[in-house]
Amino acid sequence: MSWPGLIDYYRERLPVRDLAAVTLHEGNTPLVEVPRLAARLGVEARVYVKYEGLNPTCSFKDRGMTMAITMAVAEGASAVICASTGNTSASAAAYAARAGLACFVIIPDGNIALGKLSQAVMHGAKVLAIQGNFDDAYRMVMGVAERRRVTVVNSINPYRLQGQKTASFEICDTLGRAPDYHVLPVGNAGNITAYWMGYTEYFESGVTASKPRMMGFQAAGAAPIVLGHVVENPETIATAIRIGNPVSWKKAEAARDESGGIIDMVTDAEIMEAYKLLAASEGVFAEPASAASIAGLKKLTDAGRIETGSTVVCTLTGHGLKDPNNAIKSCPEPVRVPAELDRVLAVMGI
Ligand code: AN7
Prior knowledge:
Elements: H1 6-9, E1 31-33, H2 35-41, E2 46-51, H3 61-74, E3 79-83, H4 87-99, E4 102-108, H5 114-122, E5 126-130, H6 134-147, E6 151-152, H7 158-164, H8 166-175, E7 181-185, H9 190-204, E8 213-219, H10 224-227, H11 249-259, E9 262-266, H12 268-282, H13 288-302, E10 311-316, H14 324-329, H15 341-348
Parallel strand pairs: 2-10, 3-4, 3-6, 4-5, 7-8, 7-10, 8-9
Antiparallel strand pairs: 1-2
Helix pairs in contact: 2-12, 3-4, 3-7, 4-5, 7-9, 8-9, 9-11, 12-13
């Protein structure tokens, strides 16, 4: 039987009643053990990555969007809107197309990865690139929603986090237990909130006997939660998490504190090192923001914060192909060779 999508699989744990799901069969992403990466990081634990780049639009946002668009249809909406650093816009555009709804997305001009922009336009969204950052785009969305009948599908929409919590269910179902540590990037802080909700629900209904410590990582140039204040001009190569005033700030702090976890930051240099190491050591390609979780795991390991023999899950939130420009920029160029066998052999050097 093929996977029906997360709403039909986890329906009794989601507030959807018997509504027909708007689905692209999202969810059921691989949990990949990464021993070679773990060895390279020097972590003496079982390390897994939750490969969310293998969702239909290649990011975790599809989990929330199947719920948000299903509910928007049920409520009679004709149009949806979001602000986005890229992945939310790609997902909203795709699911709106699937449901026959109009979609408006507001993005920071020049600061969204190429793959994400190509998705939003291909799926027929009306794309507004504003001269401002994500936080400005979000303000615009809130303003529009006050004046026009459009459904906001940013994570202020409660159905988004409901859908996203299913990633925790899948991890526990696969492992047969909850991990000891869950490491993930933090931008608008919705995902860490949703994962914690999922882990808590499984624990409270007796499916699991423990809950993980939630270990969130922001980019150093966009780390408002770590610094304890809004960052006016967030800057990071990981444009997906280039956010200075997260919507779910307080909920993320609650997830951190209730789980006995942390929210810390990693530099762009650490992110790019982890980005390449993951791809080269395991064949798993994730975008720079996702690599913040791997950079975070390295930082935790170096500080002796990961208990030997424990189980660690890192979420890889988006696929590496979302951002081809950063991939190509971060590696040596292909060697240009004439089509002559001797020259090819000479360049190969083996
Ligand atoms: C790849 O698309 O906010 O902490 O507008 O695309 O739940 O915000 C994206 C966020 C991590 C951070 N990794 O998750 C958007 C947007 C990737 C992302 C995050 C995002 P949250």
